[in-house]
Amino acid sequence: MSAEYLLPPDWMVRLERMSLGSAKRVAGTLQGKRRSSRLGSSLEFADYRPYAPGDDIRRFDWGVYARTGKPFVRQFMDEQELMVSLYVDCSASMDFAGGTRGREGDGNEAIPSKLRYAKQLAASIGYVALCSYERLQACCFSSQIDARLPVLRGRGAAHRLFRFFQDAAPGEEGSLAAAFGAPGAMPRLPGMTWIFSDFWLDEREEDLGLMLSRLRGAGQEVVLVQVLAPEEIDPAYSGDLRLIDSELGTGKDIAFTGKVLRAYQDELERYQEYLMKLAADRGMTFIRVSTDMSLQKAVFGVMAEAGLVIA
């Protein structure tokens, strides 16, 4: 299956010039393009240290010896790979779409569902990682890990990543705490974990905080990407309507008035502030995107401004 089916045709070339803005210095097992905390054999000079018997004579600095009469060897930064883990929320609430958005020079286009948009963002980040020779794994979850893609490496594995997301179907109820609480759900190696979700989850807020703390304790640099539809951010409903819970199937009759909409906006703002504080207290990054936002704006705008991707 071609990448263009999931991502725009001209998207791949732009992503190939990007890298992930991880703050971690990692110690991987294979050579990559990311600086490690260890000293090794890349071409980037790090420091000098006194020569000791057994040192590689090719690192002996004769210039320093000629000037000082003391033997020193050069040290270089070791470039290692980053372990990148992508988790996409495939619960039923993510399978929501509606409306159209403007498209330059070609009228309007349908706004994708939150799930498809999250898949596109995750595939974009995954492709950046593969082009940078990082190690990559991906999972889809609802209240459990529904599907898992084994570790990939190298640009040639991109088609497996795209097919994995392309085939992922929406599930039922969503719970981060339950999904990550299952054996083997947590990343096994320290690295960078991305979670793409609307965060409309069936769990207590304290359980969500505990799960994120566990991720942090597992050596993960965590990025939370909240994906919402425009109707969820700024609903324009009025009159008497019946709202159906997409995950539970239950309904509730609501008389939409200005007071009800203001109460919803207040609760949404409170929850947003809670998620931002939850992330900030644990040294994580939280961003929110809307499905009416172009992929270019989401990646090269929101994510780039947050330092998550670097040109």
Structural account:
It is elongated and about 90 Å long. It has 9 helices and 14 strands. Helix 3 packs antiparallel against helix 4. It is α/β, with parallel strands linked by helices. 32% of the residues lie in helices and 31% in strands. About 6% of the residues have low confidence.
Spatial ordering of strands, largest sheet: 8-7-4-9-10-13
Figure out the total of helices.
9
Please write the string of helix (H) and strand (E) elements: HEEHEEEEHEEHHEHEHEEHEHE
Helical residue percent band: 25-40%
Number of DSSP E strands:
14
Nearest-angstrom radius of gyration?
23 Å
Cα end-to-end separation? 27 Å
Give me the secondary-structure topology.
Blueprint lengths: L10 H6 L2 E2 L10 E20 L11 H7 L3 E9 L2 E7 L10 E3 L5 E3 L3 H18 L3 E7 L3 E9 L4 H10 L8 H6 L9 E7 L7 H13 L2 E9 L1 H4 L5 E6 L6 E6 L1 H24 L3 E6 L4 H11 L3 E2 L1
Parallel strand pairs: 4-7, 4-9, 9-10, 10-13
Antiparallel strand pairs: 1-14, 2-3, 5-6, 7-8, 11-12
Helix pairs in contact: 3-4
What labels would you give this structure?
311 residues; alpha/beta; six-stranded mixed sheet; two-stranded antiparallel sheet; 32% helix; elongated
